[in-house]
Amino acid sequence: MAASEKTKILGWYPSESAPDYEVIIDHDEKHSGTRCASLRSLVKEPRPFGNITQAFSPDEYIDHRLRMSAWVRTRLKSGTAQLWLRVDTGDDWKSNDVKPGKFDNMDDRPIEGDTDWTKYDLVVDVSEENTSIVFGLMLLGEGQIWLDDISFEKVEKDVPLTGTYAVSGCPRKLQPINLNFEE
User: Fold this and answer.
1) Residue 166 DSSP SS3
2) Which of 39, 44, 117, 132 is buried most, with the most CB atoms less than 10 Å from its CB?
3) Which residues pair with 22 in a beta bridge?
């Protein structure tokens, strides 16, 4: 099998509105297992940003604080990489309704330059009115980023929240799937 291949990734959706980027499965660069997902720019000055995303039901996390952990590696010539985690209620994404504790896109701490595999944590609150959990990784600029070994866990309320607001719009599943990109 090739070291990398452009393919559909089970459970994941690349940003279709960003033709300057592509999502691939990479068999050489991985945190663990045999492969990972990678997002790379295809042109020198890509716009607006590339993204790989997934959505699932919040049912298991209702009334809990949720931590998403993920491993990311970067080779950036310009711009940043940012994980993101969003907890939606109905049509929040249509109104851009700001809800503290429901969204983090690492805007206050973007990943820059070249990095080795690094673990990042994003923490949000999930409440009874929430209808989906949406998460992913985005690349803003020229370069390549890798994503592997994503996990979700309930944490105590004394674990600090990250991020500040909520927006939405992706399909949801009952549980997140293919988090290590091995399926």
Assistant:
1) coil
2) 39
3) 40
Phi, psi angles (nearest 5°) of residue 114: -100, 125
The answer for residues whose C-beta is within 8 angstroms of residue 24's C-beta and 6 or more apart is: 4, 5, 6, 7, 37, 38, 39, 40
Q: What's the CA gap between 123 and 102, in Å, rounded?
A: 9
What are the two backbone dihedrals, phi and then psi, of residue 81, each rounded to the nearest 5 degrees?
-115, 145
d(CA 158, CA 38): 33
164 class by beta-carbon count within 10 Å (0-12 exposed, 13-18 middle, 19+ buried): middle
Residue pLDDT, tens place only, 39-49: 999 999 898 89
Say which CATH class 4-155 falls into: mainly beta
Residues of the chain with pLDDT under 70: 1-7, 17, 91-100, 164-175
Cα 40 to Cα 45: distance, rounded to the nearest angstrom: 12
Domain boundaries of the chain, sorted by first residue: 4-155
In the numeric block, which tokens belong to residue 12? 């994941």
Global pTM value: 0.84
For the record, the structure tokens of 175 come out as 């549980």
